[in-house]
Write a structure and sequence with these properties.
The complex is a heterodimer of chains A (about 425) and B (about 300).
Chain A: H1 6-29, E1 43-48, H2 53-70, E2 73-78, H3 81-93, E3 100-104, H4 108-112, H5 132-137, E4 139-140, E5 143-144, E6 146-147, E7 150-151, E8 155-159, H6 160-166, H7 174-184, E9 190-193, H8 200-212, H9 223-237, H10 250-258, E10 262-267, H11 272-277, E11 283-286, E12 304-307, H12 314-327, H13 330-340, E13 343-344, H14 347-356, H15 361-369, H16 381-396, H17 402-413
Parallel strand pairs in A: 1-2, 1-3, 9-10
Antiparallel strand pairs in A: 3-12, 4-5, 6-12, 7-13, 8-10, 8-11
Helix pairs in contact in A: 2-12, 8-9, 8-16, 9-16, 16-17
Chain B: H1 2-38, H2 44-49, H3 58-65, H4 69-99, H5 105-111, H6 114-117, H7 120-130, H8 137-144, H9 160-186, H10 190-198, H11 203-231, H12 235-240, H13 252-261, H14 266-296
Helix pairs in contact in B: 1-14, 3-14, 4-9, 4-11, 9-11, 11-14, 13-14
Classes of the chains: A alpha/beta (about 425), B mainly alpha (about 300).
Amino acid sequence: MFSPVRLPARRFAAVFGSVALVLAATGCGGGTGGGSATGKVTSITALDYYTDATEHSQWGTRLTACGKSVGVKVEHTSVPGASLIPKVLQRASSRTLPDLLMLDNPDLQQIAGTGALTPLDQYGIDSSGFAEGILSAGTYKEKVYGLAPTVSTIALFYNKDMLAEAGVAVPRTWDELKAAAAKLTRPGRYGMAVDANATFEGTWQFLPFLWSNGGDEKQLDTPQAAQALQLWVDLVKSGSMSKSVLNWTQADVHDQFVAGKAAMMVNGPWRIPALNQAKNLHWAVAPIPVPRAGQAPVTPLGGEVWTVPQTGSEARQEKAAQVLACLNDSKNMLALAKQYFTVPSRTAVASQYAEQLPSMAAFVRSAEGARARTRELGVKWPKAATGIYTAIQSALTGEQTPEEALKDAQLIATGS
Amino acid sequence: MVRARRWESLAQGMFIVPAAAYLLLFFGYPIVKNIVMSFQQYTPATFYTGAAPFVGVENYSRILSSDLFPKVLLTTVLFTAGSLFVQFVLGLAFALFFQRRFPLAGVLRSLLLLPWLLPLVVSGTTWRWMLDTDSGVVNSTLRHLHLLPSGIPWLTGTSQALVSVILINIWVGIPFNTTILYGGLQDIPTHLYEAAKLDGAGPVKSFRHVTWPLLRPVVSVVVVLGAVYTVKVLDIILVVTGGGPADATETLATQSYELSFQQFEFGRGAAMSNLLIVISLVFALVYLRANRRAKNA
C-alpha cells in the first residue's frame, strides 16, 4: 500500500517549504532593526565608500559630531567604491538600507529611480543656494533626493620646473596643448598624461574635451565629438602622450606625474595632499585647455551626495535628515572643502572659500560651472558612458577612426 | 514490519536533509534565480519594488545578436584554450621534474605554490606595473638585453593584450596543475616503472605506456576543473586590462559583469552568465564522457 516513491517527494516538499520559509524570513524580516517607529531614536546607521583609513576616521568624526548635535549616535560603515552600488541594491531588496547613505553623484538618479530614497523636501531641508550642477545631479523627477557638502572637478596639473626649463607657457587652447606637450616630451618623459582606460573614469576625463567643444552625450557621432577625440589621438600618435594611457587609472596618471614621467596631467584636487607631500615637485593647476582662446571649459561635476533612504521608520528618517542637513551646513561645508581640497557646493560659501584659499580659485571657478553627468540622460547615462570609453579605446588603439568609433559609441549609448 | 521499514527510510531520508537543504539553498536557488532573471527585465528598481516584467527570450536574443558577441566568444575560447593548454603542459613538466629526488625539492615545490596563495588583485596589479610599456620591468629588461629596440605594448596593443592576460593566467594556474598532477604521479606504483625498465623502456616509453595511462583520471579532473575555473576568470582581466584595449580582452565573464554592475542591465547580465554556465557544463560533460569511454576501452 505504502509506496516508497512518495517518500522522496514528501521529503523534497519539506525541504522546499523550509527554503521558502528562510527566504520569506530574510525578505521581510529586515528593515525594522534597531529603534521602532514609536520609541525614541538613539542611533542611526550611515554607509559610504570612504574606506581609506584617514578619510574613514575623519568622516566618522564629522558624522559623530553632527549626530551629537541632533541627539543620535551614528554607526558609520564604509565599503569599497566598486561594491557600494551592488551593496545598496542588495540591501534595498532586503529592506535593510542604512538611515543615511552616500552615493557618487552620477548614481543618484539610478537609485532614486528605484523608489528606495526619500525626497528631502519632506524634512524641510533647505536646498537653496546650492550650485546648479550639483543640485541637478541630486534631483530626480523634479525632487531633490541628495545633497553634497562639497563638489570637485578636474583640471590641468603641470610641473612648473619642466615648463620653465622647456620655455613653454601654460597651454590654454588645444593647439597650445599639443605644441606644449610635444616640446615637453623627452626620452623617458611624456608631455601629457590622461586616464583613457576602459572604465567610467576614462569617460570622466574625456568629458571636458567633449563638452568644451560643444559635443554632447545625447548625440555622440558629431564632428564636435570627433574633433575632441582626434585631439587625444593626435597626442598619442605624436608621442606626446604614452600609449599606456589606455590602461592608466587616475592614480596611475598621478604616479607618472609625481615620478616626473609626465609634465602635465588631467586630475582632480583630491590629489593635492599627495602632491604636496612630494618634495622637489613644483606643481600648479590651470583650467583644462579649450578648443579656441577665450572659451570657458565645461568640466564634469564630481562629488558625493548624501541621501535618506526609505527605511520604514519616520522617526529614524527624520533624524538622518537632520544629520544630512548638518553635514551640508556652511560650517561643515567649508571644513570639508579645506580638508579635501574640494569646493563648497553653496555658491556663497564657495566664494568665501576662494577668498581664504586663493590657490583653489581655479577649481572654485570651474566647479561652479561644472556639469552633472546625469543632467541630460539621467538613468541612461551609464550606457552613454560605456559608449564613450569604448570609442576612446578604439580610436587610441587605431582600430577605428574617431568618426567610426563615435558612430559605434552612439549605438551603444542608445542601447543596441 | 511495515512501520519499521517506513521509520527506517524516514531516518535515512533525514540524513540527506541537511546536505540537500544546503545544496538547494546555496546552489539551487541562485541558479534558478539567475535563470528566471535572464527572462526578465530586471532593473535597479526591481531590487526595491520586486517588479520585473517577463520579456521572454529578449535578453538572450539581444546579447546573441550584439556586434560584440562573436568577438567576445572568440576571446573567451582563445583565453580558455590558451591558458589551459600551456598551464597543463608546464604543470605536468613541473610535476615530473619534482618527482625526481634532489636537494631542496620540497622547498622549491612549496615556493611554486606562491602564485596560488597571492590574492589575485595583488598579483594582477603587480603584473600590470611589470608589463607597462614604458616603465615596466619586463620591457626594460628586454631593452637592456638588447632584444628589443622599443617596448612591446603588452597591455595596450590590441593583439598583445590578450596574450598578456593569458600569460598571467597561466602563471596563476601552474601551481594548481602541478599540485594535482604531482599527487597523481605519487599514486603510480614504482614497481611498474621498474618493470618497464626491465622490459627495456626508456623514459619516453615509460611515460607513454605507464605514466600517461595511469594519470588519465587525474588529467581529466585537472582539465575539467581548469576549464571551469578559466572560462569564468574575471578578476585578473578586470585588474590588468579592464577588458581593454578596445574590447580586446573582453570575455563572457567580463561582459556579464559590465552588463550587470556598470550598465545595470541585470537581465542581460544574467543571460550572459547563464551562457557561461552552459559552456562550463558542456566542458564537464564532454570530458566526463571521454573519461568514461577511456575507462571502458
